[in-house]
Please model this.
Amino acid sequence: MQSKTLLVLGGTRFLGRTVVEAALADGHRVTLFNRGRTAPGLFPGAETVLGDRESAADLAALAAGRQWDAVIDVAGYHPEVVGRSVAALAGRVGRYVFVSTLSVFADQATVQDEDGELLQLADDLPEHQQYGARKAACERIVREAFGERASIARPGMIVGPHDPTDRFAYWPRRFMRGGRVLLPGDPADAAQFIDVRDLARWLLDCVTRQRGGVHNVTGRTLPIGELFAACHELNPAAEPVWVPAERLLAAGADPWMGVPMWIADPDCAAINRVDVSRALAAGLSLRPLAETLADTLAWDTARGGPAPGAEGLDPAAEGKLLALLD
Ligand SMILES: NC(=O)c1ccc[n+]([C@@H]2O[C@H](COP(=O)([O-])OP(=O)(O)OC[C@H]3O[C@@H](n4cnc5c(N)ncnc54)[C@H](OP(=O)(O)O)[C@@H]3O)[C@@H](O)[C@H]2O)c1
Model:
């Protein structure tokens, strides 16, 4: 494979970190641009330019006299901030790969392909409810500036080693602890997620294969029972206890963060049924679930489990819920 010069905006937390690891392993020459706060010194094999992407002056200093085959903008959230990097890098990068999100869709209750209607920014909504609309606005800025040379990836839930949330790692760890394991909803409920390494591969392939356009980039929909069955295989002595959604809600359980990956809101009924056929046809490759689980568990064990206050049910809360529901 031909070695490329890549600029990664971010690159040290989760997805960006995985992109940089894969890029270096592939022999690409990588420049990271970040503030040096998250995992400083993580990649001695890459050039790091320190700066704040919110600052037009820092971006101008980064770009002065430089050229890269592509920029991979992993963690751009605000249109005005992404607009600044687009302006600074126009004419300096051959391709702009932007990581968006499936949360851009206006309707999360109906199955969407890439052409679904997108959220619009709304002045009357609080900042934290504008994530999807802001990402949609960022997408527009990148596409307007780079046209065919824009690659927009819309991931769903990203899982795997170094995930700063505890939404996925909770499950293999929970099964390994054994005992009665509270499982939310119905085994036929949908789940959909992508291994961070498969997403990183997709992003790098956008550069090496010059793949532009917009793609929903997540895994295939699977019954959540399949995920839990694979977790159960890690420790067959654990005892799964399925609790229907309405009973869990009535008992005060908190969907999504309280009981990780459990989505009980009918307005979000299609969130785990997104159409990824365009990405699959364009070469998206997805590793087996067992590999994602094993590697996530190995990473989680090595780090000594999650930080206090992470998502998920602690043993006392789970025991209380199970006792209430018995
Ligand atoms: N997690 C999910 O399930 C999910 C789902 C859909 C989409 N996504 C998208 O996936 C992406 C995940 O990003 P990530 O956090 O894993 O990326 P990352 O590139 O691994 O980490 C974030 C990077 O941004 C840098 N950074 C933060 N603020 C900065 C600033 N003002 N100026 C310069 N650098 C700055 C951080 O370094 P410093 O702190 O040192 O500056 C860090 O290197 C996001 O775009 C998210 O919207 C995530």
